[in-house]
Amino acid sequence: MRILAIETATSLGSVALLQDSETVAVISEFVPRRHLEWLAPALQRLLGSAGWTVAQVEAVAVSTGPGSFTSLRIGIATASAWARARGIPAAGVPTLAAVALGTQAAGAVCAMMDVRRGEVAAAVYAGGGAARPIVDEVVGPVERVLRQLPAGPLTFSGDALAGYAEVIAGMRPDAVLAPRAQWYPTAVSVGRLGWERLSRGEHNDLYRLWPRYVRSPVDQA
After folding, report:
1. Topology of domain 96-182, per CATH?
2. Up-side HSE of residue 120: CA atoms within 13 Å toward CB?
3. Chain-centre distance for alpha carbon 12
4. In whole angstroms, how large is the CA radius of gyration of the chain?
5. DSSP state, 106?
6. What is the pLDDT of residue 221?
7. Which of 30, 37, 103, 144 has the highest Cβ tally under 10 A?
8. Residue 219's pLDDT band (boundaries 50, 70, 90)?
9. d(CA 50, CA 47)
């Protein structure tokens, strides 16, 4: 299955083409507050680099949040429009799962995103490329969230590390902090997680494919 994947939850805009779970082409660029003007030209460049036509795309995968209110809407609206126009399925993917999948860790990964106003959203996933949820999403001040996580070694990843790395290290001495390059969800991870859903016959109702905001909408990217 030829899949178009779109990730716009953070300031890193990312689009990818996959053949099943294998990456064919990818474009990732930091575009803070510029997702609207960036996305359509990026998709055009992406298709051209792979030699694909619009008609050859058979499914769409898109990040659904948490993330920036405006940029998430842009990505999801674009994915829905592609799917409706072509009559193809679309699979929404949790942004925290995409963060976890893109983090290189043998053990469990805590994906943590800054949702502003002094709060973070976090979830724990199996490592080693699985992104299987171990602890469901928790939202709140970072100290409270950290106290709700399971004991034992965790690799932390996600854009919340930019503001809370010292707090994490102070409360979790056994924590491993992922390199900054792995903090951001990418379209490749979204596409692979989307493929897992699509291969099981799962997809979203295009009129109910909405962003997931863990709190009142606030622009972040």
Report:
1. Nucleotidyltransferase; domain 5 (3.30.420)
2. 29
3. 10
4. 17
5. S
6. 55
7. 103
8. very low
9. 5
Task: Specify the CATH class of 2-95+184-208 in words.
Answer: alpha beta
Whole-Å CA distances, 70 to 8, 11, 77, 92, 109: 9, 11, 11, 17, 27
Structure-token pair, residue 96: 């925290």
Structure tokens at 7: 């990730």
Q: Residues 27-74: pLDDT tens digits?
A: 999 999 999 999 999 999 999 999 999 999 999 999 999 998 899 999
Domains 2-95+184-208 and 96-182 in one fold: yes
**Residue reference for tokens 């800054």:** 114
Residue with tokens 């903090």: 183
**Domain residues of the chain, as ranges?**
2-95+184-208, 96-182
Question: What are the DSSP calls for 25-91, one per residue?
Answer: EEEEEE-TT-HHHHHHHHHHHHHHHHT--GGG--EEEEE--SS-HHHHHHHHHHHHHHHHHHT--EE
pLDDT tens for residues 68-125? 889 999 999 999 999 999 999 999 999 999 999 999 998 999 999 999 889 999 999 9
